[in-house]
Amino acid sequence: MLQIKQLGRVMIPVADQDAAIAFYTEKLGFTLTADVPFGEGDRWVEVTPAAGGAAIALVPSRDEYPAGRMTGIAIDSTDPKADHAALQAAGVDVDPEVIGGDGVVPLMFFLRDGDANHLLIVETPPA
């Protein structure tokens, strides 16, 4: 029987792990949860949302795994409109407008990190 229990982390390729750490911790409020030597001269770096959940592993980009992609990652927010305004004011590359919110599709918008990796902020009801 398999021992798979939950989604633990997703990987995002980045050109500069230190710059990516700064973006995810300073702009998105994530916590640096791992930064350890890995392989031959690499580092394993993970950041985690403040409320927990799956971590994002910030891995060095490679020719076969380049930065600047649609990640497929959706991050929950109880107030996407406020987050959009705050991220826009902080100079983060966000979509011009928040979309959805019509009762069928939740409020959402894309943002791009310093490597142009796309992440989606999606409304989730408060707990």
Question: Can you lay out the helices and strands and say which pair or pack?
Answer:
Layout: E1 9-14, H1 17-27, E2 31-38, E3 42-48, E4 55-60, E5 70-77, H2 80-89, E6 93-94, E7 108-112, E8 118-123
Parallel strand pairs: 1-4, 5-8
Antiparallel strand pairs: 2-3, 3-4, 6-7, 7-8
Describe this structure in words.
With 127 residues, the chain is α/β, with parallel strands linked by helices. The chain has one domain: 2,3-Dihydroxybiphenyl 1,2-Dioxygenase, domain 1 (Roll). It has 2 helices and 8 strands. It has helices spanning 17-27, 80-89, and strands at 9-14, 31-38, 42-48, 55-60, 70-77, 93-94, 108-112, 118-123. It has a 4-stranded mixed β-sheet, with helices on one face. The longest helix has 11 residues, at 17-27. The protein is globular, with a radius of gyration of 15 Å. The protein starts with 8 loop residues before the first strand and ends with a strand. The relative contact order is 0.21. The model has no long low-confidence stretch (mean pLDDT 95).
